Amino acid sequence: MFLSLPTLTVLIPLVSLTGLFYSASVEENFPQGCTSTASLCFYSLLLPITIPVYVFFHLWTWMGIKLFRHN
């Protein structure tokens, strides 16, 4: 079963936000303890930043291909 793009657009930020709130509730030193890559907290902060950057560059590449093909 493949999820549609609108479903993933809503589902992925909600999952990352849930992970962020989970890390904030479990970690006793939440903002300062997020520097280690072995911590779940690090990835719960990294995921909400990585997804918009990935979408931006994916759309930028797609737009470049479209413009190159039609010019």
Automatic annotation (TrEMBL):
GO terms for biological process: GPI anchor biosynthetic process. Keywords: Membrane, Transmembrane, Transmembrane helix. Coiled coil: none annotated. GO terms for cellular component: glycosylphosphatidylinositol-N-acetylglucosaminyltransferase (GPI-GnT) complex. InterPro entries: PIG-Y. The chain crosses the membrane at residues 42-65. It comes from the Eukaryota. This is Phosphatidylinositol N-acetylglucosaminyltransferase subunit Y.
